[in-house]
Amino acid sequence: QVQLVESGGGLVQAGGSLRLSCAASGSIFSVNAMEWYRQAPGKQRELVAAITSDSSTRYADAVKGRFTISRDNAKNTVYLQMNSLEPEDTAVYYCNADIKRASGPISYRYWGQGTQVTVSS
């Protein structure tokens, strides 16, 4: 079994900051890409940021320059530092990880349970 557990969401005023964490645990051989998605009410889930196993990153245009994704491979944990938050960032944030449970080419995608981020104006 593999679990992703997110933390760090909450309520913040516009212009404020939050740091999300997502820790993978269980039967893990290695973790490949790790990603953050978000889903606002009435909207589709969208990719916010992604980081590869060698820490290459990419971001959605809406968050470039404000959000930073990072990871701690020793802890199988990915972070999302969110600065200059805007009301439009309000959403449930989910982490996703591509995980190998054994050596070889097969990997699986796992989702966290989501954490609510609310930005007030």
Protein described:
This protein is mostly beta strands and 121 residues long. The protein has strands at 2-7, 10-13, 18-26, 30-39, 46-51, 57-59, 67-72, 77-82, 91-100, 108-111, 115-120. The strands form two sheets. Strands 2, 4, 5, 6, 9, 10 and 11 form a seven-stranded mixed beta sheet that branches. It has a four-stranded antiparallel beta sheet with strand order 1-3-8-7, with no helix packed on it. The model has no long low-confidence stretch (mean pLDDT 97).
Structural category is mainly beta
Task: Give the distance, in angstroms, between the N- and C-terminal Cα atoms.
Answer: 41 Å
Query: Over all CA atoms, what is the radius of gyration?
Result: 14 Å
Average pLDDT number: 97
Looking at this protein, list some descriptive labels.
mainly beta, 4-stranded antiparallel sheet, 121 residues, 7-stranded mixed sheet
Concise description?
It is built from no helices and eleven strands. It has strands spanning 2-7, 10-13, 18-26, 30-39, 46-51, 57-59, 67-72, 77-82, 91-100, 108-111, 115-120.
